[in-house]
TrEMBL record:
<dbReference type="GO" id="GO:0061605">
    <property type="term" value="F:molybdopterin-synthase adenylyltransferase activity"/>
</dbReference>
<dbReference type="InterPro" id="IPR035985">
    <property type="entry name" value="Ubiquitin-activating_enz"/>
</dbReference>
<protein>
    <submittedName>
        <fullName>Molybdopterin-synthase adenylyltransferase MoeB</fullName>
        <ecNumber>2.7.7.80</ecNumber>
    </submittedName>
</protein>
<dbReference type="InterPro" id="IPR045886">
    <property type="entry name" value="ThiF/MoeB/HesA"/>
</dbReference>
<keyword id="KW-0548">Nucleotidyltransferase</keyword>
<dbReference type="InterPro" id="IPR000594">
    <property type="entry name" value="ThiF_NAD_FAD-bd"/>
</dbReference>
<feature type="domain" description="THIF-type NAD/FAD binding fold">
    <location>
        <begin position="17"/>
        <end position="255"/>
    </location>
</feature>
<keyword id="KW-0808">Transferase</keyword>
<dbReference type="Pfam" id="PF00899">
    <property type="entry name" value="ThiF"/>
</dbReference>
Length: 259
């Protein structure tokens, strides 16, 4: 992952990130990678909230937030980056204030816009990595297409009632076998018919579920930035909260798409 240069870690940062730095897989070089990283988070809601909080705590140097909404009382059951005093405030502002309290070393870039096909390319191209916490298929396809075109890794998750899913997308690269890595459209060739998948407001969602899936998104992002472990590329992680069960499904690029 191409990154800009960062200033050396200060004594305060060395103490703050001591539990990272003592890990051989992270160490000082890995923490520097986190400090240099520019991560764009789509949505400061149920998924975006834990993503932003954990990446801020981890020392990611720049976090971009895309969200055009304001905080409502019904958000607070799951969107833990906001509190009661933030009701009525722009989510990007509320999230930025929380991040500043967590870690003043993190720069926040606020994008109070609705992401669409017209602005997605420009937004995505300014960052090293994108995390999608949106709640609708239209935005998910736009984000995935923009990331594929710009050559940016994408950590994508979704939740519904008591279950969640997560994957990492790098369709601009090839796997060890020389074959193209799969895209979002290989996993979901077409969006479901309108009205088939109920919204969060219609069906409900368990608040802690978004915390589980958003934290897993943050974990995948850290792995990608630090260059450790095996990201969920070509694998879809499925979480059944009621059954307390994780499953992993493998998928690959469609042959016609690869050709």
């Amino acid at each position: 992952m191409t990154q800009s240069r960062a200033e050396p870690l200060t004594p305060e940062e060395l103490e703050r990130y001591a539990r990272h730095i003592v890990l051989p897989e992270i160490g000082g070089p890995g923490q520097q990678k986190l400090k240099r990283a520019r991560v764009l988070v789509i949505g400061a809601g149920g998924l975006g909230a834990p993503v932003l909080e954990y990446l801020a705590a981890a020392g990611v140097g720049t976090l971009g937030i895309v969200d055009d909404d304001t905080v409502s009382l019904s958000n607070l059951q799951r969107q833990v980056i906001h509190d009661t005093g933030a009701v009525g405030k722009a989510k990007v502002d509320s999230a930025a204030e929380t991040i500043a309290r967590i870690n003043p070393h993190v720069a926040v870039e606020r994008h109070r816009v609705r992401l669409d096909a017209g602005n997605a390319g420009k937004l995505v191209s300014a960052y090293d990595l994108v995390i999608d916490g949106s709640d609708n298929f239209d935005t998910r396809y736009v984000v995935a297409d923009a990331c594929a075109a710009a050559g940016k890794p994408l950590v994508a998750a979704a939740v519904g009632r008591f279950d969640g899913s997560l994957t990492v997308l790098k369709p601009f690269e090839r796997g060890p076998d020389g074959e193209p890595l799969p895209s979002y459209r290989d996993l979901f060739p077409e969006p479901p018919p309108a009205g088939l998948v109920p919204s969060c407001a219609e069906a409900g969602v368990l608040g802690a579920l978004t915390g589980v899936m958003g934290t897993l998104q943050a974990m995948e992002a850290i792995k990608l930035i630090a260059g450790i472990g095996e990201p969920l590329v070509g694998r879809l992680l499925l979480y059944d909260a009621l059954g307390a069960r994780f499953d992993v499904m493998r998928y690959r690029a469609r042959r016609e798409a690869a050709e």
